[in-house]
Amino acid sequence: MNTLPRPSPPRQSELAYAGILQALFAGKVKFGSFISQSDLTAMTGFGVGPVRDALRLLETEGIIVIHPRSGIEVIRPSTELARSTFQFRSIIERFAARQFALTAPLQTMDDLIALHDRAIADLAGCASDVNLSDAMTGLEKDFHAAITASLSNAIVDSAYRRLHLLSQIVRMNGLVTRHTAEISIGEHLDVLRAARARDPDTAESAMMRHLTNALHRNLGLM
Q1: CATH of domain 12-74
Q2: What's the Rg (C-alpha) of the chain?
Q3: 199 pLDDT tier (thresholds 50, 70, 90)
């Protein structure tokens, strides 16, 4: 009897990478600060080799800058970072929205619409001043990842993983209220319903409107 091969366990460098990111998003390492490699090895519990490999990857992704004499500089969320990130996302996602509308299975669309409908229902019980940033991060990922995946392009997938990470950093200090969440979910649904109608032009326009509004919300302009 043939059995499926077991997936390889994650390498130490992959675990160190995840540990460093966890420290960043938990606030143990401040964005815009300097930190040493030895501090990170102590914080994550991994050895020098895995941490060094993880740091090389994080530098490639633009999350840190390694200064030979000054230590490791963590990027700071900024207006320029937000603009650059959303500009790159718009280049990818406007075409992804068209492809999604033309090729995605209707069941995929229906599942995403149902997911968003449940999210709206869940918001009804939330206080108006509660920060829903963490809850919206998962929904944003599900929505945008599904649409980008419709391009079936491994290079785009790799670039988009970095963009998603940068988008999380941009949103780090943002407040997502119930009202803001409802607007964002409504914009998602505009894209999904246009795609469900197999209307790529409207889906593309709705995606561009969502990304533009999301940038403005992150910059405090809406």
Answers
A1: 1.10.10.10
A2: 19
A3: very high
